[in-house]
Amino acid sequence: MPPIEQPASTKTRDVEILVVVVCLAAFLLTCLLAQWPEGQSKVSAKGFGIILAAGLTLIMYSFLYRDNPLFKAAENLYVGVTLGYTLITTYRLSLKPDIIDPLFIDPPTLGVFAGELARRFVPIVLGFFLLTRLSRKYAWLSRYSYTFMVGWGAGIGIPIVVHTFILQQIQPAIRPLLDAETFRALTPFSWLTLSSPALWSIIGTLVILVGTVCVLFYFFFSMEHKGAGGAVSRVGIWFLMISFGASFGYTVMARVSLLIGRVQFLMEQWLGIAGR
Amino acid sequence: MFYKRSLPLIICFVMGVLAFCQEFVAHPSADAFREEMTTWFRIMGGFAVFIGAYSLLHMHVTRIRQRQQGWGYSAFVFLGAAATIAAGVVEEILKGMGTFEEGKSFSSFDWLYDYIQVPCGATIFSILAFFMASAAFRTFRARNTGAFLLLAAAIIVMFGNVPISEEVGRWLFPNSSGWQMIFPRANAVLMEYPNLAAKRGILIGISLGGISQSLRILLGIERSYLGGGE
Amino acid sequence: MKITPEATLRRQEITRRIIYALVALAVITPFIYALPVKFKPMTLSKNLYDKVESLKPGTPVLLALDYEPSSMAELQPMSIAILRHCFRRNLRVIVMTHWNTGVGLCKDVCEKMAAEAGKESGKDFVFLGFKPGYQNLVLNMGENLLGAFDKDFYQKPTEGMPVLEGLRSLKDIPLVINIAAGASIDGLWIPYGRDRFGFDLGAGCTAVMAPDLYPYLQSKQLIGLLGGLRGAADYETLIAKPEAATKGMQAQSLTHVLLIVLLIGANIVYIGRRYYGPKEA
Q1: CA-atom Rg of chain B in angstroms
Q2: How many contacts, defined by CB atoms under 8 Å, are there between A and C?
Q3: Is the whole model's pTM more than 0.95, yes or no?
Q4: How many Cβ pairs closer than 8 A exist between chain A and B?
Q5: Whole-angstrom distance, CA of residue C203 vs CA of residue C226
Q6: Fold classified for C43-247
């Protein structure tokens, strides 16, 4: 009688379980064999924490192979811990010192309590109104809280945006070109040999000014970009492509840095291979 | 209804105008008004976190209740949150009793942060390094002038920012100290001129859009922040 | 031979895994075999260092550490180096954060660096902790610093603290350094802080954000910038204490070279196929 062939799905699951067991055994063996600095015990809160952190790190990296139950469990655990941490920290550092302590813990007399409550009454009520956003029946109460915050933010934002992001940005783009001292430093010789710092300062400022105007023109869609306008728009695109390339380069640098940080932890703290 | 829609819009307008005007009033009362308002919003901000917490927990409770795909994993969310909150609450109680000193006593709350939240949070974003490398290799092609400029700029920045570029410069120009720094200098020139120009253009454009959006909010044209309903 | 979609997918899968393995190898190798790393700090990093170096002992400095674990690899080394420098200069250091998920990291950095330098909380430095409010918090601090933070992280009253003596608001602090992962620098500290209250603002940011901040450097709204791990390594070099960031530059160098080789190689093959390969009928 021929041997009974196991279905493919059961075979795959068996292989997966075997892989998990082998990985777990390898991880535990590595933890045992790792040489930690003297004074750092593996059987301690910090020691167990480092082992747990290393395990969670490797579980997260298992996603590179493919999504798996261990990764999903670790991801959800992380979400839960973050939620708990956020709630406790907000209570401890915001609600307690700003509301609970001044109203219920600190005040020695009813008069002091009344004074503190009067100061905080409106923001506390508006704070509770914020929470009514979660109720279908009373969500309209939250509109009062949002309108206070949004109205304030919009109103205070207008002069700040005009000053910080427009006027303060236009000024350095133009001022060097209006500086008589810079032009007085130029000589015919420096024009020919390109040797004057003042000349390069003017060229640089012109490049920035031309680039800024071309980029702004590119985003002006109210007229068709044809002819001279098309040429200006094309120059704007070139400047944008260069800046996107720079952003891409820096983004690669950022992501690689994050990876280096985790590998540093695994090599130095978990495996005890101190930086050689 | 007036008090459900019109009154909030009036409050938004009044607050916006007051916020705008106090920027230009040098009187101490304007400073006092600004201090009071910012204190109010600071206190209100402490309540906002509970909206996010409720939404997240509600989503996971619904997932468990309806036995949606992957509902078992939601138990880990509750496990993590419960453990952290319990650790924090116990610590607060012990602080009240005077038996816990921040920075000196062992803190299980900090332990959960240091050995679960920190490694998981740091690792999740570091995975992007691999995806970025793979995606760039597979899709980043110099198909036209713009793409070529993008690629060239990326390579100049990536090479100019690392120490090995200075080693290469020293190898290429052993006798010329000025030229040895050619790659970092190329990176600096690229960042300080064409990149700066483009970013400034984008910044000014976004700012103009932001001003127009703020005016729309103040005048009641933009009302999405009010939420749905009548 | 006709190439099936399954074969294409399988080839892409294998290519992907090879790239992952190469990247991992490039990052891990320098931790086993150290590469020589010598570099000159960038001008932007030196500007920030020079500013801190120019402050007289006892000058107050505010450090806003607005980041969380997802960006700690780049920003924590910066915070450590700057705190070390500030303590070395005997400056009065005030630390706070806008991110409640980063409170633990800020606390660790403050306590470790203070212990190393022999500094005392309340006397030489203060960790104010976190408060919500974002721009409203900065505006609040700009009017009344002790009103915004009436207690520090350890729940000690800030009123009467020696380190905060004579400080009423942000106007009394000559230098603020913001180490940020999000839009805190250009969305918060420049418009609502520096431009209103007149202090000098230095910044440390993730490499992703660095290109966006160059306009503010030219307009002098920022006096110096540490961009990513390279910025942190620059600062460590300047204070003559190379640590995590400087070591990380070895792996950074190797990985960047690998990625550049892959990009250039892929494009050479692409251009070769496009211009010299068999033309489709």
Answers
A1: 28
A2: 132
A3: no
A4: 393
A5: 6
A6: Rossmann fold (3.40.50)
